[in-house]
Amino acid sequence: MKMKILIADDHVIVRQGLRALIDKEEDMMVSAEAGTGAEAISLTRKERPDVIVMDISMPDVNGIDATRSIMAECPEVKVLALSMESDRRFVVEVLKAGANGYVLKDAAFAELASAIRAVAAGETYLPPRVTTLLIKEYLQRIPDEVPATYENLSAREREILQLIANGSNAKEIAFAFGVSVKTVENQRHSIMKKLDLFSIAELTKYAVRQGLTSLK
């Protein structure tokens, strides 16, 4: 049985071109066309397509709002957003609205056909260019979110951390470095503060993760 596809785009020539290509696929057929977001919502209620190829920039109701409305009424329908925009804001907004995938309008039809099949099968489709953009922007945010790391410790603090992790107490560490127990306790407090840790047990676990000790 062929997948029923609804094409929603405000340009007639785009709809006609997509219909001609989609109808040549053995497992697909275009069941309806919509020129506005409002038409897409209405036709979805009537036709119950398997997949909607949805332009996100349409008059009256845009593709993002149309997707949101369709998902509220027909959550079983899959939406594949189609756009000239690779800006993360558009991608994120339409995915939040409930779209299952995103394809750029400069893509070859073979990619669109693959994306249709992917979302119909319950997968999420994003083109490599968009995926790369989202990953890069995500990675740029990580430094502001992660806690202080091992690199924040001084050389002496790293040595003390390793000794603590291997079971040495404050007195033993003080003797090893020729300093007072109070000095070791102050340095231990500094280490815990920098690493946002609150106990010797947490320090030991942290050291194991860093490969500083063989203790488990």
Shape: rod-shaped
For the CA atoms, what is the radius of gyration? 28 Å
- Side by side, the strands of the main sheet go 2-1-3-4-5
Calculate the terminal CA-CA distance, rounded to whole Å.
Answer: 57 Å
CATH superfamily of the largest domain: Response regulator
CATH hierarchy class name of the largest domain: Alpha Beta
Provide a compact summary of the structure:
This protein has 216 residues and is an alpha/beta fold. It has 10 helices and 5 strands.
Written description of the protein model:
By secondary structure, the chain is α/β, with parallel strands linked by helices. The protein folds into two domains: 139 residues, 3-Layer(aba) Sandwich (Rossmann fold), CATH 3.40.50; 61 residues, Arc Repressor Mutant, subunit A. The protein contains ten helices and five strands, in the order βαβαβαβαβαααααα. The protein has a five-stranded parallel beta sheet, sandwiched between helices. Strand 1, helix 1 and strand 2 form a beta-alpha-beta unit. The longest helix is centred in the C-terminal third of the chain and has 15 residues.
